[in-house]
């Protein structure tokens, strides 16, 4: 969480400063693509604030209304962020670009735009480098895309994708702005805005897919489930582990339900001790598993099936 906060704070500071300068430059130079970039940076700033809010809410302790805690708040606000990238970032940028393609206007004093783009690239690039370094610490040698798919902390890869899209968007705007200025083709400025919008919508779909999956309840990996099965079935009082149900409540909290059969000769006291022992074994092996519910199943019930 702390690592994710580092990248969020750096992105927040960069986007807040850049958004203001982009809007000012866009107003002075009459540049559609610069206004679109200003919208992009404003949305990103709002996104970082929502992520920080979600992180804070997710740390609230469990109470009578939320017995398993508030961890899923982070997944909810991450999903909202992905929708905002689509609606406020992508759609508005495309609408702005189409308007300027239909009614192109000559850029005024484009030198200001180049200065702002250069500064934005420096700040966004620095923020992206921080996000890459922080995410790189968590992937533990796993391939980048696989690490993103397997990550249970959306705050890390959300900032990574946002900063990456920001840097790529700046490159698109710079290239088309140079062409528009040098070849007197003002409609290219609007095209740049459209391309930035398409880029944001593409990113939003990826982020929405991952955030939705976490919000709906991703479980432990098959590899982890196999290891838990070995731990449980190696216990002297267990006959067989019948089923494993799990769900991430937050990046650091997993709810685990185990359905298993114990030896029939165990009395109530022995069964209680065995359940407590197994619960502690699993928690000791995996500190991310905070809740372990063990459901005994009788042999008679199995034979009846």
UniProtKB/TrEMBL annotation:
UniProt keywords, alphabetically: Membrane, Transmembrane, Transmembrane helix, Transport
InterPro entries xref list: Cation_efflux (IPR002524), Cation_efflux_CTD_sf (IPR036837), Cation_efflux_TM (IPR058533), Cation_efflux_TMD_sf (IPR027469), SLC30A9 (IPR040177)
Compartment annotation: Membrane
Signal peptide span: none
Coiled coil: none
Transmembrane segments: 6-25, 74-94, 114-135, 156-179, 191-208
Membrane topology term: Multi-pass membrane protein
Pfam families the record matches: Cation_efflux
Cytoplasm is among the record's keywords: no
An example Gene Ontology molecular-function term: monoatomic cation transmembrane transporter activity
GO cellular component assignments: membrane
GO BP annotation list: zinc ion transport
Keyword match Transmembrane: yes
Domain Cation efflux protein transmembrane: 10-216
NCBIfam families named in the record: CDF
Identification of the protein by name: Cation transporter
Provenance organism: Pedobacter paludis
